[in-house]
């Protein structure tokens, strides 16, 4: 199965002070880089950062190397997602909390602690990868 994210922009106010900065360390318990393969394509997650702003905005920046068997080429790309976040006790939700008026990604949920957090798509049963982030500052 190939994991594909679609870059989308929510109406999050990510301006202002960055409250916390995280770095992506592993996906499903595997250290980066992690590759997802499809029938004739592959996508390798090279690195990722998550910025949580004091105003409630979240910005995720991920770097990928994609491969296409059709032409044998590799392509580097950077994906930036703008969202909002909510923290309640030891849980975090990242996504859009307003009304979705177009094609929207599902929210992501996970565990939150002072040292780091996890995120996975908010679906049941849980079939999406779990992304683990470590607090940088």
Layout of strands and helices, then pairs:
Elements (H helix, E strand, L loop, with lengths): L17 E10 L2 E2 L2 E4 L3 E13 L3 E12 L4 E16 L2 E5 L12 E4 L4 E6 L9 E5 L2
Antiparallel strand pairs: 1-2, 1-4, 1-10, 3-4, 4-5, 5-6, 6-7, 7-8, 8-9, 9-10
Structure description:
By secondary structure, the chain is an all-beta fold. It has a single domain, classed as Lipocalin (Beta Barrel), CATH 2.40.128. Helices cover 0% and strands 56% of the residues. The chain is built from no helices and ten strands. It has strands at residues 18-27, 30-31, 34-37, 41-53, 57-68, 73-88, 91-95, 108-111, 116-121, 131-135. It has an eight-stranded antiparallel β-barrel. Strand 6 and strand 7 form a beta hairpin. The radius of gyration is 15 Å and the shape is globular. The model is unreliable at 1-13 (pLDDT under 50).
In short:
The N terminus is likely disordered. 0% of the residues lie in helices and 56% in strands.
The CATH architecture can be given as Beta Barrel
Largest sheet, described in full?
8 strands, antiparallel, barrel
Beta percentage is over 45%
How far from one another are the termini?
Answer: 34 Å
Q: What is the count of distinct domains?
A: 1
Mean pLDDT: 89
Radius of gyration: 15 Å
Order of helices and strands: EEEEEEEEEE
Structural class: mainly beta
Q: What's the number of extended β-strand segments? A: 10
Helix content: under 10%
- Shape, please? globular
Placed side by side, the strands forming the largest sheet appear as: 1-4-5-6-7-8-9-10
**Low-pLDDT windows of residues:** 1-13
- With helices defined by DSSP (H or I, 4 residues minimum), what is the helix count? 0
According to CATH, what is the topology?
Lipocalin
Q: Would you state the CATH class?
A: Mainly Beta
């Amino acid at each position: 199965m190939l994991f594909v994210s679609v870059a989308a922009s929510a109406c999050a106010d990510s301006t202002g002070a960055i409250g916390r900065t995280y770095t992506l360390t592993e996906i499903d318990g595997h250290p980066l880089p992690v590759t997802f393969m499809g029938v004739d394509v592959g996508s390798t997650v090279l690195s990722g950062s998550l910025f949580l702003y004091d105003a409630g905005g979240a910005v995720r920046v991920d770097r990928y190397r994609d491969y296409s068997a059709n032409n044998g080429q590799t392509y580097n790309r950077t994906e930036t997602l703008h969202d909002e976040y909510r923290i309640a006790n030891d849980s975090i939700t990242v996504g859009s909390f307003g009304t979705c008026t177009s094609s929207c990604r599902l929210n992501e949920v996970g565990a939150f602690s002072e040292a780091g957090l996890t995120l996975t798509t908010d679906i049941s049963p849980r079939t999406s990868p779990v992304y683990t982030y470590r607090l940088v500052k």
